[in-house]
């Protein structure tokens, strides 16, 4: 069963929104908001669109566009959608 | 009225070089930067020459976070703005954020970015279009990105008047300074060397079809045959004179006068507006024509437009009455970036008391009656320089910079 890991998410965020020395997602940033990590709502929109395409799922726009969300919450959201899709 | 606002920082990203020093050295040496387009395969188009900015790797100049969301024109603008701010020895983070604004000129927008996303749309579908397309294509995005990056939250804007925009931006910035915003980043930057942008540029019918980089763009020459497009421009720091003096800033010169007009309909029988724009700028600066030491001309490179400009200049200054130069013969016409780059060049000319040359123009049309400075720089006493610019569709602008 496919699963989105923090490593996958870090790679997707870097591809979508670029990489800065100043902020980088790691295991320790699971519970910081995307905003704190330096990602705005467009970066999240871009990333969620890539996740939807790559994993064949649909995420609710309003949830994903909330920059107060944390990487941990996004992982949970995606993996719930993936589980629901698996027969 | 307070003293004229002054320029305290220069940022240049042009075919002639990255940074004001490189640009000025190449300009004085008469090193033409027009050549075959390398940005895309232009072989199938009727024109294939441009002035390209060489050696600009955005990764060396910008934080990684800005790369996925910026078109090339914005990357050039962000780099040039940062150089201008550094040159002015400004630390925006330590200044009142509402005391700094940004006004840029933009003619096209992020065409290369936009073309890539259009390709994604029709090849792969709407879900493949970048979320950043929402603003990366926009001709106002340079203002927004510079403002965000440096925390400049004062009055800001964008002007869209093609080649005249590079001067109109200075006028808008000056207005904001007079209204109480002491620091403005202003100028223009355009880059749209991609098939989608190229087609849009060729559509005006004025782009030269010559394949010879030395013969393709010859303003005021017997053999004038259109212009060569280019990319790049300049961003400058324009500052309230008292504020600049208070912080001991180095001053390149002042923006002393400005005028803008709009041409009448070609069949109206009324004269074009360029001369009136120049007269207005001189009046605004409190100068007589005899006070002007140099004119950096618009230099359309289209015979009829060259004649109109020559008549405007000789009408004001007399035949051979003032040195005239078109350093953009080295870069091509940069749209919004062109006149802004001319302003930077004018300030460097004032600093070094040298008139930059016009290159490749071997047979200036005698009937024009212009004292054209060709091939090599000319030493001169320079106090006031008049910069002229015309934008496609009838825009005329004139700016006086003073030592």
TrEMBL record, chain A:
Residues 3-82 form the Carrier domain. Coiled coil: none annotated. Pfam families: PP-binding. InterPro entries: ACP-like_sf, PP-bd_ACP. This is Act minimal PKS acyl carrier protein. It comes from Streptosporangium becharense. The lineage of its organism: Bacteria, Bacillati, Actinomycetota, Actinomycetes, Streptosporangiales.
TrEMBL record, chain B:
InterPro entries: Beta-ketoacyl_synthase, Ketoacyl_synth_C, Ketoacyl_synth_N, PKS_Beta-ketoAc_synthase_dom, Thiolase-like. Residues 2-403 form the Ketosynthase family 3 (KS3) domain. The keyword DNA repair does not apply. SMART domains: PKS_KS. One of its GO terms (biological process) is fatty acid biosynthetic process. Its EC number is 2.3.1.-. It is an enzyme of class 2 (transferase). Keywords: Acyltransferase, Transferase. It comes from the Bacteria. It holds the Pfam family ketoacyl-synt. Coiled coil: none annotated. The keyword Acyltransferase applies. GO terms for molecular function: 3-oxoacyl-[acyl-carrier-protein] synthase activity. Belongs to the thiolase-like superfamily. Beta-ketoacyl-ACP synthases family. This is Act minimal PKS chain-length factor (CLF/KS beta). It comes from Streptosporangium becharense.
